[in-house]
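Comment thread on ticket #2218

A.B. wrote:
> Attaching the input chain for the structure job we discussed in standup.
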Amino acid sequence: MSRYIKLFKIGIWIYLLGVLNPITIFTPTIVRAQNELLLSQVSSNQAKQKALAHLEKAHELVQFMSNPDDQCNVLIYIAPMYVEAGERYQANQVLAQARTITNDISDPREQSSALAYIARVYIEKGDYDQANQVLAQARTITNDISDTDHQSFVLEYIARIYVEKGDYDQANQVLAQAQTIANDFSTGSGELLNIITHVDAQIKNYDLAQTITNSDPDPFLQFFVLPYIAPVYAHTKNYDLAQTITNSISDLFWQSLVLASIARVYVEKGDYDQANQVLVQARTIANRISDPDNQSYFQSSTLTHIARVYVEKGDHDQASQVLVQARTIANRISDPDNQSSTLAHIARVYVEKGDHDQANQVLAQARTIANDISDPDNQSSTLAHIARVYVEKGDHGQANQVLAQARTIANDISDPDNQSSTLAHIARVYVEKGDHGQANQVLAQARTIANSISEPIKS
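C.D. wrote:
> Ran it. Output below, let me know if you need it in another format.
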């Protein structure tokens, strides 16, 4: 599967956060750099210098790779980290090297998508002139792509980048080209139309977005596009159309969530009567959710979302009623991982409404259930999530207890990559509670573990 389709599936933003490693063998060096960058936020400049040393090492390893596509992948991954570290000169060097290497990529699909990713990094660093040059080159190369589905995917991603830089005229031009190609599809147009619709909605072309959605019966659109468009219409004060779109969503979980989002817009507008009507409708639909495997999880999650809207509108009595129902249903969730996480979300809403006694009860339940999670990776991450809620409610003593438990369990994670990442997650909670000393200790442990991961063999 080509690089850009992978990134469409996982999301370019997740890629930039480091969840997707484009070249697996570079994991040790990249993990070390990421941990050191986080450490540099809470400690001295020494951590930043170590992070830069790891990035330089990763940069040097590129020369030992024979495939220009793989080389470009790694360089595109490193460049944003230099931007984050404030090293603009190094970022420019890496990006220039990546642009040069793209000339050696023979497949126009890979070449144009690589250039599009490079342009996005230029935008992140505020270099719009360079971004424009690279995007123009990428658009030209897309004309050499023979299969229309890949051609349209690359064009769509280019359009997204134009949207991010605020160039809506260019975005519309590229989208029009992608849409023309999509109209020639005999099958598989659903995902492309979904993506085009998202971009059109971002550039405030809601009528076109709705027209595109109606033009394709693919259930993929109903599941992903309609829930996105309806709240957008609500934000533009076209409430009737937002309601009509929502009613056409067949999945009850999504329909209820979207109604809660529309109710939130009414709350922001100050129209509490309409907000109440929509929230009642959302609650009714939530009660009808039926799923053989995850019914309780979906219902409880949806009701928790609805309760949060009640809290935002100041209706604590209704929020309490819905939260009691969400808790009751959450007790029926069979998977301890989902159950504990759901209860932590419920506790967070109690914190938001100022009901710390109830929050404490739910958090205690979540902690007990978390003890039944068999996978130490999931267990440690869930406990870190619970600790974060304690931090939000100002109970640093309980937060420390849960974080200590999470750290102990993290020691049982067998995969050093996952272990290092989980410890970094725990460290972030320490940062949020202002305990930089503990954050430094945990990150130092994460650094040691990352250093134990084998480096790639140079050949």
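A.B. wrote:
> Thanks. Noting for the ticket: The radius of gyration is 24 Å.
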